[in-house]
């Protein structure tokens, strides 16, 4: 079982952006020194959630120069927000810089506020995403002598005459990682021999206290498709080794009681940040085309905690994760800096990394 760090801290004001960037860098280096195998980042815009996530590819390239042995992932890139040419170019550059150690999560996005900033409506996001991915595949396959690739998809326009430069390092192109919730997404991952994100909920309810039911359902569908796709055993093994279950908040302390108390302090600050953004979200959803169809529960509820949190003593965390290892989940993605990134929050994040690296990872690394 692999373990990866998900950089997901928040800045609450413009003057906090720079300290946050420096602390994210320090935390990534800290985790890399302690046995984590990948650094993942989200794709977000216009708010305080991970300011560097306005271009996570740029930050990943910066970190890759310092951490050449690490894998880098994106959880997830909101495909409708990116012109397909820039999407493919950025991926190819990072694929080259990391020697193929790249895992590009893809999705249609979740936030109307971010959509409207890029001229995409929430209602059309899924269709724009699917078409962008089709265009991206055309661009990756295009040779100089081929006919031009015509782009006309929502706000994205263009005509590519020659080719995408640089070429990809990985044959075909870098691995994409769909979210294996829809059958089409699971099949895309399986037929290409790619890893997938395995959800712990089933919409429209984004939460609950029985996440393993959903993880098991989606993982088995994906795994069966992958094994039926005719890949070599090596391709199947590699894809499953990066099949990813995500926790927005992982917090480990010496005792279960300490972990719960510290986690609730973290979640109260996180929920305050979410509520502060509510007015802007409401402005974005002022018309039917941008109205969300699902809602995430309050982070202080057991439904949110049950789906998105992993907490406790090292021994409790190991026992929680054993069924996931036995199922075959390959990668646990750990949000270790969830919420506003204060000095105290960074200390608690480093505490979690320390305890995971010394007392959790050694127990589970050979278990998948």
Number of helices: 13
Instruction: Kindly state the percentage of residues in helix.
Output: 40-55%
Give the low-pLDDT segments. Answer: none
Give the total of beta strands: 13
> How do the strands of the widest beta sheet line up side by side?
8-5-4-3-1-12-9
Note the gap between the termini.
5 Å
Strand % is 15-25%
Q: If you average the pLDDT, what whole number results?
A: 96
Radius of gyration: 20 Å
Could you give the order of the helices and strands? Answer: EEHEHEHEHHEEEHHHEEHHHEHEEH
How many strands, which pairing sense, and closed or not: the largest β-sheet? Answer: 7 strands, parallel
Structural class: alpha/beta
Q: Assign an overall shape.
A: globular
Description of the molecule:
The protein has 13 helices and 13 strands. The protein is an alpha/beta fold and 368 residues long. Strand 3, helix 2 and strand 4 form a beta-alpha-beta unit. Helix 1 runs parallel beside helix 13, helix 3 packs across helix 5 and helix 6 packs across helix 7. The termini are close together.
